Model the fold of this input.
Amino acid sequence: MLDTKILKNEEKAVFALRALYRQYGYLPYKMSKFESYEYYIQNKDFLVSDRIITFNDTNGRLLALKPDVTLSIIKNGEDIPGCKQKVYYNENVYRVSENTHQFKEIMQAGLECIGDIDLYDIFEAVSLAAQSLALISKDFVLQISHLGILSSVLERICPDAIFRQKVIGCIKSKNPHDLSRICREYGVEDTLLVQLVSAYGPRDKVLAKLETLGCGQDALQELQTLSKLLDQLPWADQIVFDFSVVNNMNYYNGIVFQGFLSGIFESVLAGGQYDKLMQKLERRAGAVGFAVYLDLLEQLPAEDAEYDVDVLLVYAEDTDKMAVAKAVAELTSQGKTVSTQKSIPEKLRYRQILKLTKEGALC
Amino acid sequence: MLNIALPKGRLGEKVYAMFEAAGFECPSIKENNRKLIFENAEKQVRYFWVKPSDVAIYVERGAADIGVAGKDILLEYEPDVYELLDLNLGKCRMAVAAPADFRDNENRTLRVATKFTNIAAAYYAGIGRQIDIIKLNGSIELAPILGLSDVIVDIVETGTTLKENNLAVMQTILPISARLIANKASFQFKGRQIESLLDQVRNQVNSCD
Done:
């Protein structure tokens, strides 16, 4: 019987998330640790960083340690009308840390729904994202945005690529002052964009604000329907709309989202609808998915045990080894944890110390 | 409890005065002692003074929920934070300066001395000029005088130091001022308190305009 007390936060989460995703018909997806380097470099804009660990296979082919899971999953598969491929994964990826500028291993769990997707599938993905967060901590917030609305506003105001890039930076950082300055520089009206920056919070409040924009009507309708569906969930109040969530618009379209847990200083979940990436990879299907960054769960408070072991069993060099084995078996059968040592380790915290004499007697 | 990182120095004192007027006072901060952290449990607020260039790091990593940092620092280090308000304090500009008689020879690589390597690189990439960046940590004005660089990219307040060293502003890159920033996760869980402070401070800023 597994004692869950010994599991770390991220290990507990893996078990809970697997069970959750299986419940909704998502099947496990196991992939190779390596992929062709060429594949990643063709789609490097989709990756968080274009720095990848590479090495040569025995036949000289250049391979890469996986920097991303989604790209690997979507490269295969058939596009069959009415059908969807639903998979979940728990994989390590290798990326450059923004802080240390060195490679680090990142543990991710997540799911992808690929195929003939509709608004129900998007709702299911958003709902599973919220449930994933709730399984880890009740104190969470899931932010949702719709890139269709931002695209529509930008198309109406100014199609210039550099202007878009600057404006998106301001929207991501909820920065209305520089947004207005940039609009003045380009001689365009800032009202719609400033309204979008302030569009965050409870879903009904944000929807009312979006209705006054008069842009992206199809996207707005999708958000309205999604919001009604989300109202049915037990943590509906913790799912908010926030237009500062902007994923890479060359790959993502539609609904995008990110999740926060109290006690972790950055977002622990990110995802969305990425039909544009599918098109780029010559797939006709649509797709939605998300990843939970399990390595960040280390930041959550964990129970710190008072002792490292219940019993420190100290024996002498010439103690009968059969007596040591018997004593350990006896103690572990009582459910105690035991560390056998020949001298007392300086930093080991133990509840009780027992000594085995040369003759094998406990004292 | 709202954790607030203030930049040490005159700017930080001005910002504290604004936060105090907004109803987030913490009288112990005015005591003359060596304490590093000041707390007002009743107002659920905790202040700490940090080096101005470190404020963004404290906020990005969640040690502080909000803080005040110069736009120069935000552009240089690009922390992943919300930039909620321009406080219109500590106003200056990021500029290219050079000896007053400097003429740029576009035939050769321009040598640029600066503390702000990212800002300088982005500016010159934007205008398509090839440069060599010389990273310095202080007394930037010395570089062109001693021939270490052709120009400098630095913060200019009044321009007096430049003038006294026979340097002049060639181009203004962008205006700089102090910004109220917030940690993205803190904003989700302490949003009400942050927004309340933000509204009060915004009113003060608008009334000064």
Observations:
- Chain B is about 35% helix and 30% strand.
- Chain B touches chain A at residues 60-62, 80-86, 183-186, 188-189, 191 (CB under 8 Å).
- Residues 191-208 of chain B form the longest helix (18 residues).
- Helices of chain B lie at 10-21, 55-60, 71-77, 117-126, 142-145, 160-164, 184-189, 191-208.
